[in-house]
Amino acid sequence: MPVVTCIEDLRQLARKRVARAVFEYVDGGSYSECTLRANRADLESLALRQRVGIDVDRRSLRTTMLGREVRMPVGLAPVGLTGLNWADGEILAARAAERFGVPFTLSTMSICSIEDVAGEVGKPFWFQLYVMRDRGFAASLIERAKAAKCSALLLTLDLQIQGQRHRDIKNGLAVPPKLTPGTVLDVLRKPAWALNVLRGKRRSFGNLEGRIPDANSLTTLSQWIAGQFDPTLSWKDVEWVKNLWGGKLVLKGILDAEDASIAAASGVDAIVVSNHGGRQLDGAISSIRALPEIVEVVNQKIEVWVDGGITSGQDVLKALALGADATMIGRAFLYGLGAMGEAGVTRALEIIRAELDVTMALCGLRDVKDASPAILRAG
């Protein structure tokens, strides 16, 4: 086994193992990938304040998300096609998160279905909803999440229309994968990946099978999404979802203070400050830059989480210092999954937790809940 010391090590292992089209779906962003790069660059530009002479023994990383105690302020974000990185990938990631003590969120666009995951874990997980043009189908997804005893619903607001992802188009990404000379050559180069994925419960969208026309015979993923996702989604629909769901509701994709103010007044429980990992509006500001203004506007009325570019414990602490109550990771755990399956997801979480613990200590903190702007260097 190679020595894995950081998330980038897992990324490089995943790149070697996973088919190019699937890896680049995880790794890439929209258009020129300006916002994708900004998510990382703006996190890296924040300097931490090193402190000494402070008792930092017996540190605590525990906090709560939606009233649930978590081992650290990190949740696994919803990501489509997770089960194409490793057979039954959603189940493996959910198990790893459950054992580690952090939340897992299943995407509407998952390979394993809600029921598949519910049958393999012992505690409730969260479900992420995309609202389709067929509102009856959206309502059925909510009912299935209830039946599976999901403890929270994350409604994604920033994918009414999909930003173009050049890499996906060039790779001909489709689900199930299309057989073209390029994809055949890619699969032949990654035989272990192909054999692994073929052993999975499913190879298409588990939540959509038999329910959405053409879900199993796509031209490309982006073309299918363009035909199914609803560009009329509005705040009225948020109220509709809230009433139909009746439980903990999180709005994902908030990047503007005005939208955050509306969200806080809508009666939801939390928001995720997010630019969809740099995969939607290219040229939008990074999530970490948007965070402080949103925290100020929300003024502790609801929980504020953030995602986008978070690949280390240092990133987590910086986000908390700027007012986030918690963070979510997508690529970081997917690199682990693609590299080593369930063990890789666990390793990704271990890496981030260890980095967060050490960074807290070197900043003079004993409790993660005490993170504030005071641990950041001005300028």
How would you portray this structure in words?
- The protein has 379 residues and is of the alpha/beta class.
- 43% of the residues lie in helices and 10% in strands.
- The protein contains 16 helices and 10 strands.
- The strands form 2 sheets. Strands 3-10-9-8-7-6-5-4 form an 8-stranded parallel β-sheet.
- Helix 5 (114-118) links the parallel strand 4 and strand 5.
- Helix 4 runs parallel beside helix 16 (342-362) and helix 12 (257-265) crosses helix 13 (287-298).
- The chain is globular, with a radius of gyration of 20 Å.
- The model has no long low-confidence stretch (mean pLDDT 94).
Helix content: 40-55%
Number of E strands: 10
Number of DSSP helices? 16
Give the averaged pLDDT, no decimals: 94
Order of helices and strands: HHHEEEHEHEHEHHHHHEHEHEHEHH
Q: What profile does the largest beta sheet have? A: 8 strands, parallel
Structural class: alpha/beta
* Rg over alpha carbons: 20 Å
Low-confidence region ranges:
none
Q: What overall geometry do the principal axes of the alpha carbons give?
A: globular
Layout of helices and strands, plus pairs?
Blueprint: H1 7-17, H2 20-27, H3 34-45, E1 63-65, E2 68-70, E3 74-76, H4 89-100, E4 105-106, H5 114-118, E5 126-129, H6 135-147, E6 152-156, H7 166-171, H8 181-189, H9 191-198, H10 221-228, H11 235-245, E7 248-254, H12 257-265, E8 270-273, H13 287-298, E9 303-306, H14 313-321, E10 326-329, H15 331-340, H16 342-362
Parallel strand pairs: 3-10, 4-5, 5-6, 6-7, 7-8, 8-9, 9-10
Antiparallel strand pairs: 1-2
Helix pairs in contact: 1-15, 4-16, 12-13, 14-16, 15-16
